[in-house]
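Re: the request from the purification team.
They wanted to know what the chain is likely to look like in 3D before they choose a buffer screen. I agreed to run a prediction and write the result into the notebook, where they can find it.
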Amino acid sequence: MVVNDFSHINGGAAKIAVSSAVGLAQAGHRVTFVAAVPPSSPELNHYNITVVNSGQFEIAEDKNRMRAMTQGLWNVKAKRLIRDAICGLEVKDTIVHIHGWTKALSSSVIRECVDRKFKTICTLHDYFVACPNGGFYNHRKGTICSLKPMSLPCILENCDSRSFAQKQWRVARQLVQERLGRMPARIDAFIAVSKFSRQILTPFIPPESCIFDIENPISVIKTFSAEIGEGSRFLYVGRLSPEKGGRLVSRAAADLGCGLDIVGDGIERAELERIYPKAQFSGWLPADETLDQMRKARALIFPSLWYETQGLTVLEAAAVGIPSIVSDTSAARDLVEHGVTGLWFSGGNQASLISAMKQLQNTGNAQKMGAAAFQSFWTTPPTLERHIKELEAAYATVLNAPTTGPKKGLCQLSNERDSET
């Protein structure tokens, strides 16, 4: 059973939930996909997949704010839906895999599964398992937050991007999640998508739960390494919102007067256009067109001001043979070997970013690092097939464990890169 707020692809977590469900179905497993927000992705139209959807709004988009507030705390309709969906399944050979629950489903669905003794795994796509706003980030100050989640200073801190009242609702949701939803206390295992995010979240995960290291897959066909030339421009791909660092990139590019292409959209677009009018804005593009943009780029810049959990665009850049410049305070640093396949810069520091960009304005440096990134990626590419095999191994470990909480030391799953290290 795959559990996610959305049954269509509208972001990273949904993309992984849908693609893994399809991969599992193609491998011969029967999959029930449980969601709250329609429509269903066409990819889920497979004879081994049953989609059940409560037909509700994403809580942020529901104009009935009282209904949204209540649904976000404890979604009664979704709890009933998953109860009905799970009643015909066997406990001994069923895994409940949770991807996203905070945007529509709520932790009520988690409680229903654990009460019925089903083994559960949760992929840590974000930091909601510990942090009320899901990012360990203070949106008011524009800085990473070091406060202990749900401590009194955390509760009193006005860190939400909207309002202090919204922050207090998030605190209430976190309390409901922990006390009634039994997340993370009753989850059998977790999947960390990067060593960086695993290190941050491990202190907040019960010691009797195990953590598997399984990278998210990406779908890129191997063709040829990009030909970086003198006219190649820097590239930013992502949401244009404050925590993503778009202003930092725009200011750095304006200081250098270099070429910059921006793929994505969001609330900061007008501001970024004002900061650097010479930048080329294309809005969101289909996946294949985004890869085409990467093949023409000098380097990808991933300037995120908050932690992130992985940074798939950095992998996509490596897959087509361009280096990346990444913030050293984000999980994307795990994907770049500094000075070999790209460069790190000091998170949030414009001078440090400019220094890194200057290094890659040298076309020879960019070509050398791009070729190294291409070689590194295609040595052990994070394909969907590899992802499914690692999921199957994790599922088998959890299902075969003698207790509801597998012993951490007995169920570590090392991926190929860990073994090589």
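For the purification team: Residues 363-379 form the longest helix (17 residues).
Please add any questions underneath this entry.
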